[in-house]
């Protein structure tokens, strides 16, 4: 029977909501801001690669701090560094495109500090009885912020001249990160959890019969799609319309659909339904990408976005919940939750980097619209690989 969320879980959701809102306000248009300074698909790819490298390294290195000291400080540092990133972008202005690597590394480190602490605390304040509900609420908040943030940003940017709109939005994000830091002080300090084992992720994958072997491949396949889609869909919508408010409209519509579907999935997608639900979600996610082979116009992109928003919860909630449940299968695994969280992120990072490197390599040969389309459609089938790798765990849960 599903359990209700307690006060700490709700407060953690609030901090997450503020962090994601700030990212939705500015993050949606960050790549567009860089793109307008230098229209280079590969440049955006390298910017994302620098983020992913810093993100993975930060997870691994900060794991010692999170396990042996106050993980809430990691959460606050991640939020503060995110604010610093947008402050530097404000100072650099259009010259920010000249500092792709240092800015990308800073943003990746900020995200690493925040999400490592957030994910570990999420594991501690939830259990199998309410984890799907909690993850459903995360998706719901992400959808709400996805509705409000990009639409508001696009509206502001389109009504102000030059870069004034971008500068205002980046400033607002900076302020919201400050509010999130304040909220984080109301979260209870979590006790240290023992000594951090630097090599545990590798040892776990090397252990015969470890369920993390299959899960690692599933997570890498998830990252294969995520890495490229995190920036390319936004660029395609902007390229099709050349209007920021249209991009905001795209995010508003697709996020409004996600709001409903994540709420429904969080409420009704029980563990026993994950096997069939994730398979259906993975196949439909791939299917909605195929029509892009015929058109990259705004209308077709919007249909793809709406379809993806409808079925994404079927795929994503089991992906998140299964890996978190593996951390609680025994007292030993629970005690290694930080190291296993690092393992989870390194797997995702590996997949994202592989996808983006593939993207950069393909575009170095040909950067025609047709090439980009075939690449994005091909990567759209990665969720099916995730299901194939993780189907055994999903079967065990179904029994």
From TrEMBL:
It is found in: Cell membrane. The chain crosses the membrane at residues 12-35, 41-62, 74-93, 99-121, 133-152, 164-187, 276-294, 300-326, 346-366, 372-390. SUPFAM superfamilies: MFS general substrate transporter. It is a multi-pass membrane protein. Keywords: Membrane, Transmembrane, Transmembrane helix. InterPro entries: MFS, MFS_trans_sf, Sugar_transport-like. Signal peptide: none annotated. This is MFS transporter.
């Amino acid at each position: 029977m599903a359990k209700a969320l307690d006060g700490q879980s709700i407060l953690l959701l609030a901090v997450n909501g503020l962090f994601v809102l700030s990212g939705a306000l500015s993050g949606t248009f960050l790549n567009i801001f860089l793109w307008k300074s230098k229209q280079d698909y590969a440049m955006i790819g390298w910017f994302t690669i620098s983020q992913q490298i810093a993100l993975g390294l930060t997870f691994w290195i900060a794991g010692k701090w999170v396990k042996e000291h106050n993980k809430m400080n990691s959460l606050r540092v991640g939020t503060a560094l995110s604010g610093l990133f947008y402050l530097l972008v404000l100072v650099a202005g259009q010259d920010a495109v000249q500092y792709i690597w240092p800015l990308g590394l800073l943003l990746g480190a900020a995200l690493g500090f925040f999400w490592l602490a957030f994910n570990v605390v999420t594991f501690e304040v939830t259990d199998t009885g309410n984890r799907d509900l909690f993850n459903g609420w995360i998706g719901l908040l992400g959808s709400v912020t996805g509705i409000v943030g990009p639409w508001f940003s696009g509206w502001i940017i389109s009504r102000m001249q030059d870069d004034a709109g971008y500068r205002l939005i980046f400033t607002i994000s900076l302020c919201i990160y400050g509010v999130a830091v304040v909220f984080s002080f109301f979260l209870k300090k979590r006790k240290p959890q023992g000594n951090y084992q630097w090599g545990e992720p590798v040892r776990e994958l090397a252990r015969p019969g470890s369920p993390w072997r299959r899960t690692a491949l599933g997570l890498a396949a998830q990252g294969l799609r995520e890495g490229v889609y995190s920036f390319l869909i936004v660029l395609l919508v902007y390229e099709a319309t050349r209007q920021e408010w249209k991009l905001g409209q795209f995010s508003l519509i697709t996020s409004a659909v996600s709001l409903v579907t994540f709420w429904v999935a969080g409420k009704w997608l029980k563990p026993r339904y994950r096997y069939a639900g994730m398979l259906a979600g993975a196949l439909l996610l791939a299917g909605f990408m195929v029509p892009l082979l015929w058109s990259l116009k705004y209308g077709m992109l919007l249909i793809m976005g709406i379809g993806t928003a409808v079925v994404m919860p079927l795929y994503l909630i089991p992906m998140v919940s299964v890996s978190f449940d593996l951390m609680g299968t025994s007292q030993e695994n629970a005690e290694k939750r930080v190291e296993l969280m690092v393992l989870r992120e390194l797997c995702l990072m590996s997949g994202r980097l592989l996808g983006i490197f593939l993207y950069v390599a393909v575009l170095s040969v040909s950067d025609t619209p047709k090439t980009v389309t075939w690449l994005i459609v091909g990567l759209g089938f990665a969720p099916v690989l995730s299901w194939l790798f993780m189907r055994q765990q999903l079967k065990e849960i179904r029994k």
